Amino acid sequence: MTSTESVVSRYESLNRSIPRIDSEDKVRGTLLYVTDIRLENALYAFTFRSKVAHGKINRIETEDAEKVNGVKAVLTYKDIPSLNGYGAIVPEIPVLAYDKVRYYGEPIALVAAESVEAGLEALSRIKVDITPLPVIRSIEEALDDNAPKIHEKGNIARHTIVKKGNVDKARASAYVVLERTYETPMQKHMYLEPEGGVAYIDENGTLNVIAGGQTPYRDKLQIARVLGISPDKIRVKNSPTGGAFGGKDDVTVQIHLALLAYKTKRPVRLTWSREESGIAGFHRTSSKIKLRTAAAKDGTLLSNEAAIYLDSGAYQSFGPTILDVSIETINGPYRVPNYYIDAYLVYTNNGLASAFRGFGAPESNFAIESMMNELADELKMDPIDLRLKNILRTGETGPFNNIIRHSEGLEEALKRAKEVFYRPDPSTPFARTGVGVAVAIKGVGFGTLPDFPTAAIEVVPEGKVRIMFSNVDYGQGINTGNAQLVAEKLQIPVSQIEVYHSDTKYSPDTGGSSASRSTFNAGNALLAACEKALSELRLEAASYFMTSSSSVTYRGGNFYYKDRSINIYELAKRLRSRGKSTFFEATYEVPRYPEPVEGTLEVPHMVYMYGVMVSKVEIDEMLGKIRPLEVDFIADIGNVINPAIAAGQIEGGVIQGLGYSLTEYYSYDKDGRPLNINYTTYIVPTAKDSPMINVEFVRTYEELGPFGAKGVGEIGIIPVGASISDAVADAIGKRPYRLPILPWDFI
Amino acid sequence: MEITVSFFLNGKRVTVTAPPAKSLLRVLREDLGVTSVKPGCEAGECGACTVLLDGQAVTSCLIMISQVEGKQITTAEGLERNGALDPIQEAFIEEGALQCGYCTPGFIMAAKGLLNENPNPTDEEILEGISGNICRCGAYPRIVSAIKKVVKKGVV
Lengths: 747, 156
Known about the structure:
- The structure holds 2 protein chains of 2 kinds.
- Chain A is α+β, with helices and mostly antiparallel strands.
- Chain A has 3 domains: 9-31 and 452-587, 2-Layer Sandwich (Aldehyde Oxidoreductase, domain 4), CATH 3.30.365.10; 34-133 and 195-271, Alpha-Beta Complex (Aldehyde Oxidoreductase, domain 3), CATH 3.90.1170; 283-447 and 596-746, Aldehyde Oxidoreductase, domain 4.
- A 7-stranded mixed sheet of chain A has the order 3-5-1-12-9-10-11, with helices on both faces. A 5-stranded mixed sheet of chain A has the order 7-16-15-14-8.
- Chain B is of the alpha+beta class.
- Chain B has 2 domains: 3-76, Roll (Ubiquitin-like (UB roll)), CATH 3.10.20; 87-153, [2Fe-2S]-binding domain (DNA polymerase, domain 1).
- A 5-stranded mixed sheet of chain B has the order 2-1-5-3-4, sandwiched between helices.
- The longest helix of chain B is centred in the C-terminal third of the chain and has 14 residues, at 104-117.
- The radius of gyration of chain B is 15 Å and the shape is globular.
- Chain B starts with a strand and ends with a helix.
- The chains are: A alpha+beta, B alpha+beta.
- At the A-B interface, helix 1 and helix 16 of A face helix 2, helix 3, helix 4 and helix 5 of B.
């Protein structure tokens, strides 16, 4: 639906760029981030890590370390009370290594000490004896028949085939068939606040873990499994966190902190240094994708064959579901009647790969969108016309048997992109300009995986409405966006809303911040809680007016009957005076298809975001430098709750994508040691590297979303690689097939 | 070995005893409880710990405490005047020039330092002035707008 009336806020809370509700604390510097917290009597914690990327552990000696004055604990795998494993999908990552080490930096022991000096001294006295094994550094090496096995089951973590129709027949009838291989790098999150936090046992015996994270209830469960205690004895709080982008979605320091506090009965503080974050933190899966795509002379796509390989590193964290998203997005938003997708998640000794904004979509997008641009060249078609010809329209059945709910927004975005897709100025010698385009699609939420977010609101007689959800605001602005949604629903000013988020102590389980789900899922659960509240308050109002509830009307925070009125806060006071609760909790069932497509875990999604990115670059052939000049990003994210925050999400995603496309590649040496572990050697964009970015939103309304909203967090980064590559190809007549695009690839 | 150093933190004299090579960043955070000054790399690469040293923006992780005797150190906590935010702080809020906010105090101090030296910077000079600071959330376009807004208003 693209009507304009439906997107206008009735109560002035929506479609408004109010500043983030935590802006003042942030500019004052008074917001205490998880690594700013100082607890009295706290121990300093350190991690002893493997200096061997792949090897068999023969012996771990900690006696000398334990003797250091001031050392309160030296823990190894032997000290783990219950399961020695964690991992968002499969708990196969050792909390502390025991039989083998599988990546450089893998934790082997933990130290807690009264001082930094004592802790470091103890670290230096831990001795390990490891027999090195051959290091597997790439997908190719891992899949070699003679490769050593990283895990007993081999080097393939997951393999699946998803198919439809008859690709051989379709290809045989094609006018053009292109076969290309695309590669994308490992990308580090490089959030400004490294992984860290504190843990302590409070007076009630509850183990509190306050650490950077994205999904507090899953952290809590993962901690409980390792300690062998009830999750009820654990509280996890994941904010304020200085950036996450997926890299804090699985556990980083949480279990180590919990283990140390549990064992020492003392408060513990553990923060990774920048370099430690560089070595031991998560990164994006690298990818190698072989595509063979066939089209008719008029541009109609006939078939798409894909072999997808993702490097999961030493263990699988989110790897299996990242593979699913790469499968789902390899056909783009297009009508692909025949496809054959052969997808592999591969183990290597390259650290730990996990979630990173886009979650498999930027990887696949680079392949399919580069392919679309090259097909347009081959067919001598306008690249946007080629897409307009092939995008699935509303009501059509998609490649994964999903019914397309809405694609008018994408169509409109493409048409708008045509207006800004201008041919660049004539190139001058040594400075060539080019323009490129790519389209992005990404599902909101977890697809066919069960997702039942619970959220709550509490009407406080003192004139506040507290809203509670467990998703973490690490910069996306979901606290503000969700406050706006509730304000709209209750018809009250945003200033009356207080947000309690990311904390299992205050909030029911709404799930975490991932998959661009926090507006859609938490928003819908909050609106359901508001419904409950309004229904209960209406009864109380009816009782106050001594009339029937159907005679009572509600407007702007007040219930009315004839010439009388009472506001929600007075009603809350009346309810409380009789011992009744003014806390209202609701669970929302996220709409989904009943079962995944065969061969997948979560494909397809029901609701998709779309984006079209047009980019203009200048290439200095003398310096070998690609300079992005201008980006136009037209997005369909549903109704836009807060345009400035939403645009900021897209700008930030684009800038991270520019890094991914031009300068960022995390890499390992021949012994499996990471090479670029800090800002000196891993180059992220600065203000000088950021082009002018024009973000536009097409006006759409997703009926399933809270007030028509979908999601926004991930869409910005997804099309950047293909769009920039296309602009480079336009400038120099040579197509990049690998990210980042490095000078020696085009000069 | 430890030395005793006196300097002015946001206008107030403070005295600390610390090893001479201890970074100003660590002294501010660990000894003086100043939390706006963030460690992001402790190598002068990210700018999250930027403070003003006698009005000039510096990364406090690269300044040794022995270098600040008698100096004026200003952090984000020292920008408010009579409870009112500094115009640059206001502009960051209005322009939505922050996301996670971890780098924000450092950017604000870098902007202050820039405007102290050059109250009327060109666009290029603004970019240069904040090029030592990293915002991984990518709020750069809005940070630049916020600085321009203050320049335009001439309220530095």
